[in-house]
Amino acid sequence: MSEKVISDYNGYDYKKEFWENVDREYEDQADRMAIRRLLPKRMEKFADIGGGYGRLANEYLKRARKVYIFDYSKTELAQAKEIYGDKIETKAGDIYKLPFKDNELDGLMMIRVTHHLKDMPKAIAELYRVLKPGGVAVIEVANKRTLPKMVRYVTFRSKVNPFSKEVANYKEISADGFYNYHPKYVEEIFNKTGFKRERVLSVSNFRSKTLKKVFKTNNLVKMEEAAQTALAPIRFAPSIYYKLRKPEK
Ligand SMILES: C[S@@+](CC[C@H](N)C(=O)[O-])C[C@H]1O[C@@H](n2cnc3c(N)ncnc32)[C@H](O)[C@@H]1O
Fold first, then answer.
1. 196 in a domain, yes or no?
2. Which domain holds residue 71?
3. Among 77, 106, 129, 147, which is least packed by CB within 10 angstroms?
4. For the segment 209-218, what is each residue's pLDDT rounded down to a tens digit?
């Protein structure tokens, strides 16, 4: 696969339009809970890859001595700088050519980015390259194998087969394409790249407008706490979180 896609967030107020204008408190809490469970407590150099405006920065600022927020969008990075000032360093570029040296980072995370990535093997190889041996990557994957997608497929309301390992590309959601991955597909890439899988979490299990109407956010968050570990083996949630380690030599 050679053609690359960058989903361009320049000029888009992701913070306001995606997180503040819509009730996504539950999803935000679910992401934070997973990150707290998976990120190492102490790191020297850490990067939030596709970190946007640094929505999740409070989860890693206290854990790392040096923090980079990396993104393609200068709009997002300018917002991050405005919010966090000298606590972070921003770096702009493309995930497929990360501006870090080989073995430079002790830790990194990449959250809510895989749905923009057409060439997953190349992106994962880049993350591996910039990590030190022994370093940890926390990666969120947009899952194609969710229960609602299965129901839509078996009732002929969607042609996307959630059971097949091929990459799903929803052009109707975004002109750039919007990618969802089968867990087995990404797990094979992690293995081939050399990563060791240490932990998996099932995240945003109750991402549903109906459930949000029925339950208060704090109740959904309580249910999420148990579900993240209990449901991990079946990989049904819209977000699957992986804690991966680059082995020591
Ligand atoms: C949905 S936002 C997620 C931001 C943040 N990780 C969060 O969870 O709030 C996706 C981010 O990925 C960035 N992005 C997408 N494709 C990229 C690429 N090829 N290189 C660098 N950044 C990219 C976008 O600019 C955007 O800021």
1. yes
2. 14-245
3. 147
4. 899 999 999 9
